[in-house]
Structures are given as structure tokens and as C-alpha cells.
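Batch job 17 of 40 flagged for manual review because the log was empty.
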Amino acid sequence: MPGLIEFENVSKVYRMGEYEVHALRGVSFVVAQGEMVAIMGASGSGKSTAMNIMGCLDRPSAGRYLLEGRDVTRLHDAELARIRNRDIGFVFQNFNLLARTSAVENVELPLVYSGFVPHRRQLAIDALTRVGLGDRTHHKPNELSGGQMQRVAIARALVNSPSIILADEPTGNLDSRAGEEVLEIFQQLNDSGITLVIVTHEPDVAKCCKRIIRFSDGHVVSDTPVAERRTADAKAFKTEEAPVQAARSKFK
């Protein structure tokens, strides 16, 4: 499979006054189209810095980051913003939902930032339906459980039909059942062809992926396939079989 994400000898140095912090030290790895990869490591190992660079939220100090063969390190800020909005979906531990805004309005936000998008309300509803929340479109975050809030965040990540979803500790604030439901969604999305990269410290989450890349002190210390991908054993809930891209195309 061709490389979708490629790190070539990537280093990242943060300067704090007189001191330098070497977050990444010559890191190289490839994530192929359609993979579901876990990134693990202790606090300060460099995994979050690698995630930020993958998501075009930060730039390497040295080395190259290639996204679909493009050298991202050479792109201007406007081009990076477009990639973040159109090509990459983000899911965070703390959900990052607007508290006074309904679920469907939260999901619409990337479409608002994209400019004029016909039928954006329907696209947001389709995304919520895909993650099993078609009956919660007008609920605000304080009316939802933690697992439901994370599913709203996943729908928001999906609404622009990205090729990649980056998830940073996506089950960290969830109980075990809600965490299993989120992993079930991720596996279904991956089965539909979306590439997922998940930063996690939880072995059970990593075992649901196809590969585990481990970081330590800014280095990749191992990159191994998961021998037997564990299937999330939560009670499956219905999701839309047709991807959000199909919903988008019918309005073009």
C-alpha cells in the first residue's frame, strides 16, 4: 500500500528561553492508506508532538513530513489550514464541543469554516446518524452522556469527508462501555477505508488497531503489527452504511 503519511527523519525542538527541548529526534515511519495505527508512549515521549505535526498544527524543525506525497513542510499557512479543514478530522479527549450549541450545530462547524456548502444541515444530520445519534441532533452537550459527546465529536470530524482521522486519547474520559462504543465506530470507519491514527496509553485501545508505533524520548523504539486485532465487544448500534461522502455527492 502507498504511504499516505510519511515522516522522514523528523525532529522537533522547542526553545524555552536558554533551554532546548528535543521532542522528536529523527523520527521516521509510514502510515499507509486505510491503516488503523496506534501511537503509544509515556508522557513526554513525543507522541503528541508527532500527532500535531501529522495534523498540520505544528511544523518539524528538521526532516520532512509528506502527506499523500506532498511535502507539507513547504506549504504556506493558508494551504495548511485547508488541509486541516478538508483532509483531516480531529477527535480529542475533551470533546471540544461548544457548550451552548446543539449537536447538529457543533457538527456543522467545519462546513461553516469551509465557506458556502449547500445543504450543510443535512450533511451534519447524516454524520450524526452515521455514529448512531440521529435522534440527538438538537440536544446540547449538557444533555448528552460522555460517550454521546464523543460521538458528536466523531461526527464533526467526519462531516467534511476526510481521508484521515487523528484521535488523541479518544477514550480517556469515557467509561469502559462508552469507550467500546467509540472503538466500534472507529473500526467501522476504518473498514470503510478511512485511515485512523490514535494516540493512546491504553493497551486495549491499541489492540483494536492494526499496528502499534511506540515512542520513547523522542524516538520510535518499535513499530509492530497487532497479531490479532481485537474486536470491540460493545453491543453494536446501527450506523449508516453509506459513507458521508455519498450524502455529500447527492447534493452536488
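Reviewer: the log was empty due to a logging misconfiguration, but the result itself is present. The helical segments are 47-54, 77-86, 103-113, 120-130, 146-158, 176-191, 203-206, 244-249. Unflagging and moving on to job 18.
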